[in-house]
Write a structure and sequence with these properties.
By secondary structure, the chain is of the alpha/beta class. The chain contains eight helices and twelve strands. The termini are far apart. Bound molecules: adenosine-5'-triphosphate (ATP).
Length: 273
């Protein structure tokens, strides 16, 4: 996108699945960078991500992205009025549950991320394939290019989904438990690549994440959901951030953690109960 993204916000989002109300009055405003979405199982993280993408569930409220134009002027784009194709320029999605894609190479899958920029029934061209190839290379998975989506591992498929989201060049990425199922090295590689990509492209991402240590290590802001409501939003820049983070984790999970300074830097440690 030209210019830069500034903020992603939700205003009074209420979401239902069938007759059941899942999310209540969710409002927040995220700045650029990586935003961790935390909450216990069933607290509504996936539902929130899907509602923001207008996928399936009935909802009311507004989601908007604030963009900065080249001249510095800020413009707010309300996403509810946009078609799926237009919306895809503002938001890319990496789902929690991944489909396998028979007879589709990883490269052909990743290049689908260019669809919002192609004409009706227009096939991706050489430039689109080059971009897809570059992203695969940047993620260190070029070796998967000609493999089939249904013949690679779950973790490899997850990386392919991330590559597709990056090729989409949306203002924000919404990633539902992207690190689950990745090995220890790949998990950290994943977050290092993601934070570098966000910095370079001046875009943002929301990731739902269950590991509070991973979240503490890589996220700039933290959206905390509890029983379908926004419990709080924390920022690493808050003066009392560490104390508040520990307090929220204890409230959510009933477990105490501490921060400790080690020769490798500051780290978070769980006390075994
Ligand atoms: N298809 C559905 N029909 C009815 N209720 C549903 C459906 N999908 C989810 N729910 C309910 O909505 C609530 C929120 O679910 P959601 O998947 O958003 O939680 P989550 O925070 O992403 O959970 P997890 O961490 O386990 O992935 C839960 O109470 C869940 O049981």
């Amino acid at each position: 996108m030209s210019g830069g993204t500034v903020k992603l916000s939700a205003e009074k989002l209420n979401v239902w699945i069938g007759r059941k109300k899942i999310l209540n009055d969710i409002s927040f405003e995220c700045r650029l960078g990586l935003v961790g979405l935390l909450g216990r199982n069933g607290s509504g993280k996936t539902t929130l991500i899907k509602a923001m993408l207008n996928l399936g569930c009935r909802h009311e409220g507004e989601v908007s992205v604030e963009m900065q134009k080249e001249g510095g002027e800020a413009v707010r784009v309300r996403l509810s009025g946009l078609s799926g194709r237009e919306r895809a320029r503002y938001m890319a999605y990496v789902p929690q549950e991944l489909h396998s894609w028979a007879h589709c190479t990883v490269l052909d899958f990743v290049v689908m991320g260019r669809s919002p920029y192609l004409g009706w029934l227009q096939n991706p061209g050489k430039r689109d394939y080059n971009e897809a190839g570059e992203v695969l290379e940047a993620l260190g998975i070029s070796f998967l290019e000609q493999r089939y989506m249904d013949q690679i591992s779950g973790g490899e498929r997850k990386m392919a989904y991330l590559a597709r989201a990056r090729v989409q060049k949306a203002a924000w990425m919404l990633l539902d438990e992207p690190a689950a199922g990745l090995d220890f090295g790949r998990q950290h590689q994943f977050f290092e690549d993601l934070t570098k990509c966000l910095r370079e492209s001046r875009t943002g991402a929301i990731v739902s994440i269950h590991d509070p240590v991973l979240a503490y290590t890589y996220c700039d802001q933290f959206l905390i959901l509890k029983d379908g409501r926004m419990e709080t939003m924390l920022s690493r820049e808050d003066e009392d951030f560490e104390d508040m983070y520990l307090l929220q984790l204890e409230r959510l999970y009933g477990r105490r953690a501490v921060f400790a300074d080690t020769s490798e830097g500051r780290t978070m440690i769980w006390r075994r109960t």
